[in-house]
Design brief:
Blueprint: E1 3-4, H1 13-21, E2 25-27, E3 37-39, E4 43-46, E5 53-54, H2 56-64, E6 68-71, H3 75-83, H4 92-103, E7 107-114, E8 117-127, E9 130-138, H5 143-157, E10 162-166, H6 170-174, E11 178-181, H7 182-193, H8 208-213, E12 217-218
Parallel strand pairs: 5-12, 9-10
Antiparallel strand pairs: 1-3, 2-3, 4-10, 4-11, 6-7, 7-8, 8-9
Helix pairs in contact: 3-4
């Protein structure tokens, strides 16, 4: 449920982290709208870390290594890529806040590179053993799917318990995302916040076979 932030105090990175820990997140109506509102969905999107689906064709693409996978090389570029669409909830204030969270080690990007061109990626916020996926983008076929596959492998390796996608789109549903109730989400979040996980634990580069094997639902 949206909660209007009109006449609110200035949103800070610390307040944003507290909001994530309480199960809510901010959005804006558009890139040019200076107003923000809190969102606490009645039904929450998550990807179970043992339920990500890699199709046989995607597995072949991953094994072929068409792209280079990097971490945090261009966090701002990933957020900009996610906002580079006709309609976006990422306004200037949100962009700046995630930049600050990244500088403080609470936000990370997993990036897909073709040579020296950033062609896809995903970014999100880390608290305890929870990863809050914010957005992803793709400028090449399968780039966002490949980014998610590498992200799932990294989250499992690092000991994460919860991968929050906020909502479920048909694209995410095809990859294993499901909806859970608000109460079930808050229970899972509370448990994840009581445990530590390490987003950077997995050594780079990650062998593509490891990424495919860490999906339990190849189809």
């Amino acid at each position: 449920m949206p909660h209007d932030l009109h006449d609110r105090p200035k949103l800070t990175a610390d307040l944003l982290l507290r909001a994530y820990a309480a199960g809510i997140f901010p959005m804006s109506e558009s890139r040019d709208d200076p107003e923000l509102f809190w969102v606490d969905p009645k039904r929450r999107g998550v990807i179970p870390l043992n339920g990500f689906r890699i199709s046989r064709s995607l597995a072949r693409r991953i094994r072929a290594e068409p792209f280079a996978i990097r971490l945090n090389r261009d966090f701002a570029g990933v957020v900009a890529g996610c906002a580079d669409r006709p309609e976006t909830w990422i306004n200037k204030e949100i962009f700046a806040l995630y930049q600050e969270l990244h500088a403080r080690g609470h936000a990370h990007s997993l990036e897909v590179w073709e040579g020296e061109s950033l062609v896809g990626g995903v970014y999100g916020v880390v608290l305890g053993a929870a990863f809050f996926g914010e957005s992803m983008f793709s400028r090449r076929r399968d780039a966002s799917k490949i980014a998610l596959a590498y992200l799932i492998a990294r989250l499992r390796y690092g000991g994460f318990q919860l991968f929050d996608t906020q909502f479920v789109t048909p694209h995410l549903a095809s990859l294993g995302a499901i909806e859970i109730s608000r109460s079930a989400y808050h229970d899972a979040l509370e448990a994840a916040l009581q445990t530590n996980a390490d987003f950077l634990a997995q050594p780079q580069p990650v062998p593509p076979q490891d990424v495919v094997q860490r999906s339990t639902q190849t189809s």
